Amino acid sequence: MHRIVLSLFLFLTIGNPLFAQKKLSLADFNQNYTFQEKTVQGLHSSANGLYYTTLEDEKRIVKYSYKDGKKVETVFDLDQLENAAISHFSAYSFSDDETKILLTTEREQIYRHTFSANYYVWNSVTEELAPLSEKGKQQEATFSPNGERVAFVRDNNIFIKTLRFGTENQVTNDGQKNAIINGVPDWVYEEEFAFSKAFAWSPDSKFLAYIRFDETDVKEYSMKMFQGKSPSLKENASYPGEYTYKYPKAGEQNSLISVFSYDLKSKTKIEVDLGEETDIYIPRLKWTADANDLAVFRLNRRQNKIDVLFANPHTGDSRLFFTEKNDRYIGEDFLDDFIFLPDNDYFVVNSERDGFSHLYLYDRQGFEVRQLTQGEYDVTDFYGFDSKKKIFYYQAAKKSPMQREVYYVSLDKKKQGTLSPKEGTNKAVFSSGFQYFINEYTSLDTPKTFSLYDNKGSLVRVLEDNKALNEKLSEYTISSKSFFNFETSEGVSLNGWMIKPVNFDESKQYPVVMTQYSGPNSQQVLDRWSVSWYNYLAQEGFLVVCVDPRGTGARGQDFRKVTYMQLGKYESDDQVEAARYLTTLPYVDKNNISIWGWSYGGFMTLLSMEKGGDLFKAGVAIAPVANFKFYDTVYTERFMRTPLENPDGYEDNAPLNHPEGITGRLLLIHGSADDNVHLQNTMEMAEALVQANVQFDMAIYTNRNHGIYGGNTRMHLYQRVTDFLKNQLQ
Q: Which residues form the Dipeptidylpeptidase IV N-terminal domain (predicted)?
């Protein structure tokens, strides 16, 4: 009922021009961020699970009660300090005893996850604020569990600061740019295994385990850097500079990996035995709860077998503890959802062995106890285990692949249920001890709301309802998003959404902009709110459509992994089928259909236009992959194996090899300093189009990375794409 009432409100206000006068502009989405949702910033649970803290105005940390959601006190406030060395901070973390706080300032992004910063330590006992180090910016500063020390990385070496005495001990000395990295990942690990810290404190604070990357033999990729503007690199005023880094492309040499355990008492490093095979990945390190064993995750190069080794931190000796295998590849959730329970008697894994992602319980000896979740749905996140109530909490797409709910199941499976009262997309952040959780909720017609619940699912307080945003929305005429489903000629059911033009008239025909990403296990068709550039296009008379093809997430392993060994084939087939389906709708102008996408979506734009021919009058490919042999080892080989093992899979589905199939007008866009999908892709694709006598348009953004932003860049890009679509389709 609530969704019917809210939908009526949105129709009367957002969707009805009688109640709204303002029009959307490109600046709303690229400069002013007019419709940005408010969130709860810097959320941390206290150790006792009774309170939580948030970051406010990048100046103060405020404590609230879980019991009633009310403010308890201001834990830290920069404005209350005399002659504070810093004016603001962007993140913070507490020591386990909560007497000290690490503050992150002057953050400088390196790649997607990694950054350097100046860290400061606030001691609430002595009321002193001091820099962690004054010898250069640091990475990944982390308290030891006892709060006495902080480990961090600088210049590819690991350091440990003893807070009591202010001494700084250097753990490693061999760090060198483009050669040896200690304690933080190399480029491909960071990008594809999604982590930025490659060290871990033992629970008793006696050891620091870390990964060492030897990328000496990894081939380099270089990018020209120009002077540019915003920022201006003045050193490149007369001659371009060059940025060179290690980037292993499919089939090439990866970093050689080693793992060490550093004994703080003896100040000695012990190398862990990883076995005889050296062409491996170590994507995670974790400690058992009793600190007796270091768990080392050893993944084979093909990524279809992962071993969990238990290593003795005193000797480096290791033994095989657990193995997971898959006929195609190990699901990405396995790494983060492999959890040792606090009692140390059990551990949990997320496995796809029955065709869907589900949680399994094992005992300390590595024997399966039971499957905790079961059914034709995917578990999409594992929140943890309440050791007092013996309850597991997790997120799943049980009702629909387009939605998410929060669930619980007891250790013996006798108790289970949901904690999500509303249909849509729910995401939980639990308190320490799992007495409470903060639920982030959104749906097609509801901007994010943040609500505090107890672990029985009873509402305590709404923390943020984005009321101001909803009031602002009522001032505009905005077309709402709606779901649809269709069946392809191969009998595959696909989900999509569409945004119809403002003042939609079913008797008229409208040009179409198809948007998609389509990458493995991704999802764009989800029950979540947004007002974006797509709504602007709808205001300008376009019908905007998105379809999730085969290969995307939350529909089980077979749907997700059908693209194995032939990335691009089924996804582009399905996008072409989607375009054909749209031509059957009476309100679609079948002669004016376009498709666009970014990154994998750009790759998909090229392939779809090549296969669809006259179906697509225009297309925009931003930062596209032209052939996956140009992309990195970890991502590409996970889905394709190496080019030597699977030559046909690479070449048959490479847009670079089929440019003559494009009959519509194409706009290619790329950043000249894209460290992820290299400009090489677009330059080679452009040459292939030229030699095939296919006319196209092109835009290169100076010194911009994969995100293509900075200064006026995003505004210029979206204006360029919008003008292109209008010129080609209207």
A: 95-447
Q: How many CB atoms lie within 10 A of CB 692?
A: 12
Q: Which of 351, 420, 451, 599 is labelled catalytic?
A: 599
Residue type at position 509: Q
Contact (CB, 8 A) for 583 and 670: no
pTM over 0.90: yes
For residue 222 the two structure tokens come to 């270089």
What residues does each domain of the chain span? 342-418, 479-729
Rounded Cα distance, 69 and 463, in Å: 8
10-residue stretch averages of pLDDT, the chain, 730 residues long:
42 47 93 92 92 95 93 95 93 96 96 94 95 96 97 98 95 97 97 96 98 98 96 96 97 98 97 98 95 97 98 98 97 91 90 97 93 98 95 97 98 95 96 96 96 94 95 94 97 98 96 98 97 97 98 97 98 98 98 98 98 98 98 98 98 98 98 98 98 98 97 97 95
Amino acid (1-letter code) at residue 90: S
Known active-site residue 599: yes
At residue 277's C-alpha, the angle toward residues 273 and 282, to 5°, is 65
107-136 burial, b for 16+ CB within 10 Å, e for fewer? eeeebbbbbbbbbbbbeeeeeebeebbeee
Give per-residue burial for 8-23: e unless 16+ CB within 10 Å, then b: eebeebbbeeeebeee
Is 706 an active-site residue? yes
Residues 372, 376, 382, 383, Cα dihedral to 10°: -90
Across the beta sheet with 128-131, the strand order is 91-94, 100-109, 115-123, 128-131
Distance CA 626, CA 163 (A): 51
Q: From the candidates 589, 674, 675, 678, which is the catalytic residue?
A: 674
DSSP states of 604-640 as a string? Answer: HHHHHHHHHGGG-SEEEEES--S-GGGSBHHHHHHHH
Buried residues in 304-320 as b, exposed as e (16+ CB within 10 A): bebbbbbbbbeebebee
Instruction: For domain 479-729, give its CATH number from 3.40.50.1820, 3.40.190.10, 3.40.50.300, 3.40.630.10.
Output: 3.40.50.1820
Q: Which of 387, 391, 389, 388 is nearest to 372 (CA)?
A: 391
Neighbouring C-beta atoms of residue 584, cutoff 10 Å: 9
Question: To which residue do tokens 């106890």 refer?
Answer: 369
Instruction: Give dist(CA 546, CA 526) in Å, integer.
Output: 10
